Amino acid sequence: MTDFIQFRSITKTFGGVTALRGVSLSIGRGECHGLMGENGAGKSTLGKVLAGIHKPSEGDVVIDGTPHIFSSPREALSAGVAMVHQELAFCPDLSVAENLCMGHYPRRFGLLIDREAMADRARTLLNAIGVNLDVWQPMRDLSTAQEQLVQIAAAVGTNPRIIVFDEPTSSLAEPDVHNLFRLIDDLRQRGITTIYVSHRMPELFRLCDKISVLRDGQYVGTLGKDEMTHDAVVRLMIGRSVEEYFPHHLAGSPGDTVLRVRNLTSPGLFRDISFDIRAGEIIGFAGLVGAGRSEVAKALFGLDPRVTGTVEVNGQPLQLQSIQASMRAGIGLVPEDRKRQGAVLGMPCRANISMAVLDRVNRAGFLNDAKEKQIAANFFDQLHVKASSLEAPVNSLSGGNQQKIVLAKWLARGGRLLIVDEPTRGVDVGAKAAIHALIDGLAWKGIAVMLISSELPEVINLSTRVIVMRDGHIAGELARAQATQEAILRLMAGVEMAS
Ligand SMILES: Nc1ncnc2c1ncn2[C@@H]1O[C@H](COP(=O)(O)OP(=O)(O)OP(=O)(O)O)[C@@H](O)[C@H]1O
Ligand SMILES: [Mg+2]
Q1: What spacing in Å lies between the alpha carbon of 19 and ligand 1's midpoint?
Q2: Is residue 252 part of a domain?
């Protein structure tokens, strides 16, 4: 394969931060090229340089023999480059159809926007990637997964020669992931070159012809198909090998019942949910996206105005439908949708972390600066947050590091019951291990943990018990010893146990 894309000595600085430092890298035509590296290594920045979102400070990109320095996405697009972003990229108030046709609304008599034609075009784009949804609903009503699919449809719909996928599966469920892989195989057959950024090694090993690794903004190396192993990648990423750390949580003797849920029901979302969590337990919630796990979590945190049933925390009845009541009862929620609800993006990291613990840093009406700093610094350390300082605004951090800030915000709070929804989504191997250890540590301190995760190994290894949800109800519960991948998958899919 010839070098279809050549990054030549790309350097990119943001103010005082050097995100990329002389990166040179070649990619063959029609290749699916993986890009890995720790959170903040520069993967998204490199993708954005290729897609014209960031103009490089130095260097250029040669595509099919022609050197380019793009200074807008439009320029990159006309050279055939599209990108599926890690963060949100649409107007939340406009409909799916309007977002998909942005910039080239079909018009009637050259004047009126042709709504039918617009809907048709949007549906065609979505159908091309096997997605079916109401194109007139506003973007803000979509789940993160649906939004990600719309982004993919938009990128593929520009008929590009090159597509950059920046963590495209981070909020997709299994069937959608499967469809995306088929799509990428299909793109490859049509000769389209893809750059695939992800922290999920099995995905990269399955899809990519080669994997290149960045470390601290520098290119460190490329692995061919036969060299791709967990260890080889991690070695390139951080210079030493690390096992995926799953603490062995010893069930020991859990304490008193912290959370008692009976017949929790929300019309259309979930029904008759009953379970208990005792102090020191980590209860894993498995299920397909849409099974109702995040909805139950939100309801417990007071975010569902239609929920009914009874919930007790430490034996006291919890007033439903009130965030204040839930927080007062000691419930914390690390939401799944951290892109939208997690952090105040323009505020410094320090303030974001301490926001959830204001009552503790606030003595006699004063914000205790030293205390606030100390709490934030602690979490920075434990979660290996990469930022220029505690004062850096959250939106200047890489995607994975933003996730860590939101997580820190709630972990700092502690409380009685911590609900974590997809806690390690989008973070690198090292940070993942650190997050597992933190959650495990909280359970050891006697906090009850509700762990929602789409990664079965994470659920299996971290949980003391696993509850499987399907179609809005509890399909079954498995003790730690029975919670095998196969048993969970069967319950998730609703397959009867074979003899
Ligand atoms: N707009 C910006 N302003 C300031 N700094 C930035 C900006 N965008 C990125 N950076 C910095 O550049 C570095 C690389 O960030 P980048 O987003 O490319 O990392 P990444 O490899 O994609 O990480 P992740 O796995 O977390 O998504 C980080 O230190 C980040 O803080
Ligand atoms: Mg990124």
Answers
A1: 6
A2: no
